[in-house]
Amino acid sequence: MGPIPPEILARLRQQEAAELIRQQQQGLGNPIVAFKVNDQQIVAAGNTLYWLPRWKTFADFLAGYIKDVLGPEWG
């Protein structure tokens, strides 16, 4: 096949650097899947999508999600 073109090598290095940063921020587990649609924060956890109008950031989701997962007796 021949040598890998420099622009492809550069893109691979960018992707590797982005993944390293993600791992440093989020750990070695699955990446956070979150995105915004019309200023609405949507988060995927497992096979479920979560959203509430009051969530503006991923941290907003976490604050509510942990209460749901751990139950009212935790809080």
Structure notes:
- The chain is α+β, with helices and mostly antiparallel strands and 75 residues long.
- The protein has one domain (6-70).
- It contains two helices and three strands; from the N terminus they run H-E-E-E-H.
- The protein has helices spanning 6-26, 58-70, and strands spanning 33-37, 40-45, 48-50.
- The chain is elongated and about 60 Å long.
- The chain starts with 5 loop residues before the first helix and ends in a 5-residue tail after the last helix.
Question: What descriptive keywords fit this protein?
Answer:
75 residues; single chain; alpha+beta; 3 strands; three-stranded antiparallel sheet
* Run of helices and strands: HEEEH
Would you identify the regions where 5 or more consecutive residues have pLDDT less than 50?
none
What oligomeric state do these chains adopt? Answer: single chain
Terminus-to-terminus distance: 60 Å
Tell me the strand order in the biggest sheet.
1-2-3
Tell me the domain tally: 1
Radius of gyration: 18 Å
Mean pLDDT: 88
Helix content: 40-55%
| Largest sheet features | 3 strands, antiparallel
Q: Report the principal-axis shape.
A: elongated
Structural class, by secondary structure, is alpha+beta
Q: How many β-strands, per DSSP? A: 3
Q: Hey, roughly how much beta strand do the residues contain?
A: 15-25%
Count up the helices: 2
Quick description:
The protein is an alpha+beta fold and 75 residues long. The chain is built from two helices and three strands; from the N terminus they run αβββα. A three-stranded antiparallel beta sheet has the order 1-2-3, with no helix packed on it.
